[in-house]
Amino acid sequence: MTALRAVLAAEIGLQLGTLDLDISLSIAPGEVVALLGPNGAGKTTVLRSLSGLQPIDRGHITLDDTALDRGRDGPMPQPPEQRPIGVVFQDYLLFPHLSVLDNVAFGPRSRGASRREANAAALAWIERVGLAEHAAAKPSAISGGQAQRAALARALATEPRLLLLDEPLAALDASTRATVRRDLRRHLDEFEGATVLVTHDALDALALADRVVILEDGSVTQDGLIGEVTDRPRTPYVAELLGVNLLRGQARDGGNGDHVIDVDGARSVVTIAERAEGATLLLIRPNSISLHRNRPDSSARNQWHCQISGFDLLGDHVRVRLGGDIDLVAEVTPSAVGELGLVEGSSVWASVKATDITVYPG
């Protein structure tokens, strides 16, 4: 099976204040890539560079074999209005004085279409996103979910080859978000170009993207299919995003047939089920960790004395932050907190079976 040729191929290098951005990005036709990273990592700068709002210093941005920007030493970058790119901003940025129809028609009109052609294209997209009965309404008269769909229709009405989504669901309340996320996924499935989705929400990435690119301090620290990234996170940021424990250390023979990891910065070792070599990453899911008031008499090979540093209530479970012999986050039920008498500052024992620890090269 022949691999699809990239619609977007970019090598983006630029210095902007303290940010030194150096990223490679390749996206195939119909592929949705989620760009995630902490604040200040460079995600918005990547979008600005792709859209033409921020010239790059070095590298290139190529869309359908057409160079949009070749860096400081190349020819003048193609201006934003000439790039076949659609953008949905976090706050949608619909023109408040225009109707939904005129907002969506604005894109085709700006690309040279006649009013009649632009309105026909806009009406078709308004119907596709389910806003036909709101075509004459101003943005102030529609809901946040409807505004998001209008912004998407405006971006797609220009028939772009690259779609840039900047936190497209961030402005929505929780009750609306799930419905709009499902609708957005359907439209992305039908889009034949490349899509870059910037988000802070792991659920949005899981629901909408085919592939995840993690950007930290201007560099890519992980790039892979959703399953690859969730199964094997490689940085503390990704582990925290996914709500798992990620430890790094050196594997060695523990004697008596034991395989152990000397964890960086910990005062204890971790026993694992299978032999590993060299630099190693360990993934421990919070719900695999059991908490005890006293040292447990169990078959769990890993038992650590810890102190509770805090709690986070997340729906029907509580995340317990632990420090001491090793830093971890455990997950228990609210009733377990009461039954064990867990309070901040108290001492507990944490245990986890060797077979519940995922190990991979670091």
In a few lines, what is going on in this structure?
The protein has helices at 43-51, 100-110, 115-128, 144-156, 174-190, 202-208, 226-231, 236-242, 334-340, and strands at 8-16, 19-27, 32-36, 58-63, 66-69, 85-88, 162-166, 194-198, 211-216, 219-225, 245-255, 258-263, 269-272, 279-284, 290-292, 302-314, 317-324, 328-332, 347-352, 357-361.
Q: How far apart are the termini?
A: 32 Å
Task: Please report the total strand number as a whole number.
Answer: 20
Q: Spatial order of the strands in the main sheet?
A: 6-7-8-3-9-10
For this structure, what is the CATH homologous superfamily of the largest domain? P-loop containing nucleotide triphosphate hydrolases
Count up the helices: 9
Tell me roughly what share of residues is in helical segments. 25-40%
Low-confidence stretches: none
Residue share in β-strands: 35-45%
- In total, the number of domains comes to 2
Named CATH architecture of the largest domain: 3-Layer(aba) Sandwich
User: What is the string of SSEs from the N terminus onward?
Assistant: EEEHEEEHHHEHEHEEHHEEEEEEEEHEE
Largest sheet: 6 strands, mixed
CATH class of the largest domain: Alpha Beta
Broad shape: elongated
Counting helices, strands and paired strands, the structural category is alpha+beta
CATH topology of the largest domain: Rossmann fold
Average pLDDT across residues? 92
User: What is the alpha-carbon Rg in Å?
Assistant: 25 Å
